[in-house]
Write a structure and sequence with these properties.
- The chain is α/β, with parallel strands linked by helices.
- The protein folds into two domains: 183 residues, Glycogen Phosphorylase B (Rossmann fold); 196 residues, Glycogen Phosphorylase B (Rossmann fold, 3-Layer(aba) Sandwich).
- The chain is 50% helix and 16% strand.
- It is built from 19 helices and 13 strands.
- Strands 3-2-1-4-5-6-7 form a seven-stranded parallel β-sheet, sandwiched between helices.
- The chain is globular, with a radius of gyration of 21 Å.
- About 2% of the residues have low confidence.
- It comes from Propionivibrio dicarboxylicus.
- Condensation of UDP-2,3-diacylglucosamine and 2,3-diacylglucosamine-1-phosphate to form lipid A disaccharide, a precursor of lipid A, a phosphorylated glycolipid that anchors the lipopolysaccharide to the outer membrane of the cell.
- Pfam families: LpxB.
């Protein structure tokens, strides 16, 4: 069997990395059906046959203060993983995003002769640009998702390949609002808002109450509105339910969904979304959105001082302008968010312009990503495995 004996270690540190890595594993398996994949990953990776040695959720922490609180546990996992990989070396290591965890691990593996490919460029264009030197010392190759990134690495002599974003390959180019409403049994005329307060429990801790209060404010002004809340795990669903009790908002016309985030966004007139990969998903689904984010005050002060761009949301970064509104920290309050959502709902011309920008972004990112990434990774495998894969 082609690829038999090939061992590929991977680490993904959050839900978005789990999704990216699952597409990559599927593409690699098609070329190397006998390969073994292991390390740290989530349920989507495991669905592709990945062996996860530690739960992905242990790494899914954002913000300086939050990471410091769990530093000892995270550091212990990294050290144990490093020892295990060095004692039984894989053919290649793939770090999927999570640079604060992966770069140090990649450096330790690279100096011991293990090729290391980092999939998803750290956001050096947004903040902490000096990390590029650490990246160059730690990895054998960078696979970048966005078209403006390769020039930054090429300037420093760091091998890089632009592969596009896999979500642009799998999400439809056309607007799926009508079919999504049919699937969810929603009236075509009813005002629908999707609320995506984050995939991590730590994010919900900061965002859930604000998103619920925003829905209550919208409902007060638009009583016929319906709110869809897709939640990724049992734990985040329970956490959101607790927030509904705490906010005394159980009477809101709100439907929680287990997963189905794409369907919820497609069905919505406007999406309220926590900053992160979900903002890109909403853009690729052509949905007008309002971006919000909160974190520990100290973490926010540190990150604000280190930032280079006037925006944090991926849609605005890719467009290089404010296409959709963003509200951070104290500005991300229910009154501001509700008004911005209602403004977009009422302004159909603005929504059409936003959708046209998002369509252009979608075309730019649609690059058959998993195939391009897999082909580059195979170049780092032992010659026999790589040749067999190319022949396939």
């Amino acid at each position: 069997m082609m690829g038999t004996g090939v061992r590929i270690a991977m680490v993904a540190g959050e839900a978005s990395g789990d999704l990216l890595a699952s597409h990559l594993i599927a593409s690699l398996k098609a070329k190397l059906p006998g390969a073994r994949f292991y390390g740290i990953g989530g349920p989507k990776m495991e669905g592709q046959g990945f062996e996860s040695w530690y739960p992905l959720e242990k790494l899914a922490v954002r913000g300086y203060v939050e990471v410091l609180r769990q530093y000892r546990e995270i550091s212990g996992i990294r050290n144990a993983l490093k020892r295990r990989l060095l004692s039984d070396k894989p053919d290649v290591f793939i770090g999927v995003d999570a640079p604060d965890f992966n770069l140090g691990l990649e450096h330790a593996l690279k100096v011991r002769g293990i090729p290391c490919v980092h999939y998803v460029s750290p956001s050096i264009w947004a903040w902490r640009g000096k990390r590029i030197h650490k990246i160059g010392a730690s990895v054998s190759h960078v696979l970048s998702l966005f078209p403006f990134e390769p020039a930054l690495y090429e300037k420093e002599g760091i091998p890089v390949t632009y592969v596009g974003h896999p979500l642009a390959d799998v999400l439809p180019l056309e607007d799926g609002r009508s079919s999504a409403r049919t699937l969810l049994e929603l009236s075509p005329q009813r005002p629908v808002f999707a609320l995506l307060p984050g995939s991590r429990q730590s994010e919900l801790g900061f965002m859930a109450d604000t998103f619920i209060a925003t829905a209550a404010e919208i409902h007060r002004k638009l009583p016929e509105a319906l709110f869809l809340v897709p939640l990724a795990t049992r734990e985040t669903r329970m956490q959101f339910e607790e927030a509904l009790y705490r906010c005394q908002a159980r009477e809101l016309p709100l439907r929680m969904l287990f997963g189905h985030s794409h369907e919820a966004m497609m069905a919505a007139d406007v999406v309220l979304v926590a900053s992160g990969t979900a903002t890109l998903e909403a853009a690729l689904l052509k949905r007008p959105m309002v971006i919000a984010y909160k974190m520990a005050p100290m973490s926010y002060r540190i990150m604000r001082r280190m930032g280079y761009l006037p925006y944090v949301g991926l849609p605005n970064i890719l467009a290089n302008k404010f296409v959709v509104p963003e509200f951070l920290q104290d500005d991300a309050n229910p009154e501001n968010l509700a008004q911005a959502m209602l403004n977009l709902y009422a302004d159909k011309e603005s929504c059409e312009r936003i959708q046209q920008v998002f369509h252009g972004i979608h075309l730019q990112l649609r690059q058959n990503t998993a195939e391009k990434a897999a082909a580059k990774i195979i170049e780092f495998l032992p010659a026999g495995a790589g040749n067999a894969a190319v022949a396939a």
